[in-house]
Amino acid sequence: MNKLEINPVRGIRTFPSFPVVMAVVGREENNIITISLVHVFSFSPPLVGVGISPCRYSHELFHRSPDFTLNIPSKGLVEETLFCGEKSGKDMDKFEETGLTPVPGKRVSTSTIAECPVSFECRKVHTFDTGDHTWFIGEIVTASIGEGYDRENALIYWAGEFRTIGELIRGR
């Protein structure tokens, strides 16, 4: 197969998909930010990270807060997910604006989102800068999953579009 050399930024955009989470941070602010730069960093201990640009309002909140929650939205929450990614929590209460329901964390001071079928409560353990984003790494201290959760309904982000998981090609 012949391959053409392309701009590295364009190359990054060829990744097939990115998971999407609605992160909540800040004790008083209870701000929601939609993030597609999210990754599992370790299985033992369970560590997940989110990359946030310093120009985002949530960036400072993540620096100040000892914890955060990651909430996996289903396809039925696409409008709320998009809203929370496009609007700044500096200007509004996104829970109030979207009608989403904050649920007090069981083991952290930050709320989860009732409407999201999966929630992870995370204690921040590492922060590091990489290029134009800061990675905030959290240890999952508790996870909650809704009955009947079907990960095929979870939102992913690809090429500027929200999608769901497609066909299984092969198991491991």
Structure description:
With 172 residues, the protein is α+β, with helices and mostly antiparallel strands. The protein has one domain: Pnp Oxidase, Chain A (Roll). Helix content is 16%, strand content 39%. The protein is built from four helices and twelve strands, in the order αβββββαβααββββββ. It has a seven-stranded antiparallel beta sheet. Strand 9 and strand 10 form a beta hairpin. The longest helix has 9 residues. The protein starts with 7 loop residues before the first helix and ends in an 8-residue tail after the last strand.
Output the radius of gyration: 16 Å
Low-confidence segments, ≥5 residues, pLDDT <50?
A: none
Strands side by side in the biggest sheet: 3-2-6-9-10-5-4
Report the span from N to C terminus: 26 Å
Task: Report the structural category.
Answer: alpha+beta
* CATH fold-level name: Pnp Oxidase, Chain A
Please write the CATH class name: Mainly Beta
Largest sheet: 7 strands, antiparallel
